[in-house]
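3.2 Worked example (two chains)
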Amino acid sequence: MGSEENRSLVTVPNPEPERRYTVTFRYSEFTALYPTTSEPVFATVSILYVPGETCLETVSLKRYLGTFRNETMFYEGLVNRILDDLVSACKPREMDVTGAFTVRGGIESSVSARYLSGGGDD
């Protein structure tokens, strides 16, 4: 696991906090370790969110996602952990995180998790 310093996410003030708009990130170099085999898994992580008072800073987001390289976790846990960490950092109005994992054993996997402020999770 990466150190807390490597896990820190930086936010910047939202330049249009009164406007409802969407920010989308795609990180195609995501890697982690699969628990039952300890082999690497690869994914594209997509993050779509409606900012609140702050926005995620992209360099810190890239560094944060890179810290999962040595994490051993199932797909569902990875995606939900990313969502929880990002929501905690930037407190968005809404956020969706999706991990599209490469085919393993002939099975293609995709996991999505959603946060809605005031409305809980879907």
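3.2.1 Second chain
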Amino acid sequence: MSAASPAIQADVTKSPAPTPTATRHPIPIGTPTLDPSRPGHSGSVLTTTYIVQRGDTLSGIAYATGTTPEELQRLNGLRDPNTLQVGQQLLIRRQIEGRTPSIKLIPDSELVNGPTAVVFDTAAFIAQQGSYLNRYTEVVAGELLTGAQIVERVAEQFSVHPRILLAALEYVGGWVTQAQPGEDQLRYPLGYKRTNLEGLNVQLHWAALRLNEGYYGWRLNTRGYVRLDDGAYLAIGSGVNAGTAGLQNYLAAISTIPDWPTIAESDGERAFMRTYQRLFGNPWQYDFGPLIPSDLRQPPFVLPWRKGEMWYFTGGPHSTWGTGTPWGALDFTSVNVAGCTELQDWVTAVADGVITRSVRGEVGQSLDPSGDERIGWSVLYLHIGSRNRVPAGARVKAGDPIGHPSCEGGLAQAAHLHLTRKYNGEWINAQGATPFNLEGWIAVEGPREYDGALVQGDLRREPCQCKYPDLNGITR
């Protein structure tokens, strides 16, 4: 099965970006209207759950969640703190210190790498600045990349808008406009100081994770708080949108209680939004409106292997790309499981479309007439080996060969396919209003990542790192 956060690779192969066909909403006048209130946290204590991962210790969980081992042991009735089980759920209680501002900072379309990003040329914008970022290079996965290539790559993989990444890089590190940032800014250009790993690539990964964590936590109503760098917790203010919640989650991670108010406000000398506006102007001029229509339906998808073959369902709904993203991915492998050896069986296209990228285990496919995976429906096939992999720019029909399952493109214990969907750049949860449907096999979530099922009428298949036809085998 794939890890929650696929390893990030270096090279990018893309088709030319077309002009988006959808129109933007008019620029709001004044402060955008707050959204209707919805059920959320109230009170001074927040209770959430934590799922034990491989290698976790009680002391490590306590540190990461802002509590103590003794409190975790008492709250969860743990007789022996040294006998944690992978997948075990622990209750976590957090003291709430206040609320984030109830004001909209950015539209959703400025956080997601969707339709409004199509007309933004990241490399050209960086080149115009003539700054440190413009001359920066870094070796990523054995390949020398420019600063612009790294920003574009992170934006593409995490599906986070390059403008918000550049604004964060300028706000903390000054890399976008300054010729020579300070020493601390060079080491931690996005504010991620709790690591010995330095450089633009790892810092951007961390920032993108925080942005997505807040955005999808708010969209799916699974995360109603932010955690400051000093360990304090704030409930997210009422009436904000997902884009604002995502931005607040990132800003909280680089803030402490004393400096948070000046960073999180909509204007002011130290406000993040002042930096954004200096670079890109009023964010609401880019407002696309809702990225996901209320009546969205998935187009017909076929199973991603050849007719007559039986493949095995090895991973139920889990993170699409990194922790904090929706449980929108499903894992499959064929009968010829052999560790990370590239398999002989073919992964095939689930629908008609254009291949937008084919690199380092990633194959992106646009189902939209635009041919751009930031517009309309798109699919990501991950862990596709390099041998005979379909090239970028190819037009494929449902059932056409994509490539062979492998471990390329992320952390994996065995060769397999990781399959997930986006609409207008937004990752789509496998269960919900628009369920993952593969020829009538409907995805159902479990209590933990990788659990769950695929259901077709009276038939049910459950994920397993095994090959049992009646348990997880599916024939196309």
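3.3 Remarks
Confidence is low (pLDDT under 50) at residues 1-29.
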